[in-house]
Amino acid sequence: MSTGLAKNGAKPVWYVASTFMQRTYDQWWHDIALNNQPVTALIHMASVNAMNDESHLGFFDIPFLSHIPNVVYLAPTNKEEHLAMLDWAIEQKDHPVAIRIPVGPLKETGLPDKTDYSVLNKNQVTQAGSQVAIFGLGNFYGLAEEVAEVLEEQHGITPTLVNPKFITGLDKELLDSLPANHQLLITLEDGLLEGGYGQTIASYLGNSDIRVQNYGIDKHFHDRYDRQELMAKNGLSRDQLVKTIVASLQA
């Protein structure tokens, strides 16, 4: 229905829970993406912080959606980015756009996001550093900030901190620049690790001198899980990440 509306000049906004979007793979592929219609999809509850029973898990969306041609999948880290992305998605006419609605403990900056999202796949470097670069995708950008703060305060390491914003493409210019003064790149994503955003970066940098470590959720039908326990199991606590990064840099 959204594709038909877009094809006839409307600007449809489809609000859908991630767990239910999984049932529309064929429609995404053959109706929306193949026809490259400017549908805006708001993906709700795509997070380890959302529903936690095995039949309604919402964190499988990144491998599912990000590898379909023509789709632009965006990962805001706060309210202001979400609204800016939504404005751009509705006004543009060139791509189907999905926005991963922020979930979890997020900051409200109070400052408008002036990013030009028509420049696809341009990442935002929020802190320039060296030795280690931390990419905090969407909901996990706050975790990346926490890790960066502890690294600087307790270990004298100032990492480069990146808010990718785009899930469906890589900022190759940025990635190509990192091996010059970074030994390690960390990716954090609130979703399935296998086939996810981080592994796309690891594949791109496979022949470079920088080591890449990816963190996300393991491939399993987790049922009635405790969020903190699942995060810890996957090495996604602040203290675990700091310990791993320091040990990797000293190795």
Largest sheet at a glance?
A: 5 strands, mixed
| Percentage of β-strand residues | 15-25%
pLDDT < 50 runs, ≥5 residues = none
Specify the number of helices. 10
The portion of residues assigned to helices is: 25-40%
Tell the overall outline. Answer: globular
Radius of gyration: 18 Å
Structural class given helices, strands, pairing?
alpha/beta
- Main-sheet strand order equals 5-7-6-8-9
Terminal Cα span: 55 Å
Overall mean pLDDT stands at 96
How many E strands?
9
Q: What is the string of SSEs from the N terminus onward?
A: HEHHEHEHEEEHEHEHEHH
In terms of topology, how is this protein built?
Blueprint: H1 2-7, E1 13-17, H2 18-21, H3 25-33, E2 40-44, H4 61-65, E3 72-74, H5 79-91, E4 97-100, E5 124-127, E6 131-136, H6 141-155, E7 160-163, H7 172-177, E8 182-192, H8 197-204, E9 211-217, H9 227-233, H10 238-250
Parallel strand pairs: 1-2, 2-4, 3-4, 6-7, 6-8, 8-9
Antiparallel strand pairs: 5-7
Helix pairs in contact: 6-10
Quick synopsis:
This protein has 251 residues and is α/β, with parallel strands linked by helices.
Can you put this structure into words, describing what you see?
This protein has 251 residues and is an alpha/beta fold. The chain contains ten helices and nine strands. It has helices at residues 2-7, 18-21, 25-33, 61-65, 79-91, 141-155, 172-177, 197-204, 227-233, 238-250, and strands spanning 13-17, 40-44, 72-74, 97-100, 124-127, 131-136, 160-163, 182-192, 211-217. The chain has a five-stranded mixed beta sheet with strand order 5-7-6-8-9, sandwiched between helices. Helix 6 (141-155) packs across helix 10. The longest helix has 15 residues, at 141-155. The mean pLDDT is 96.
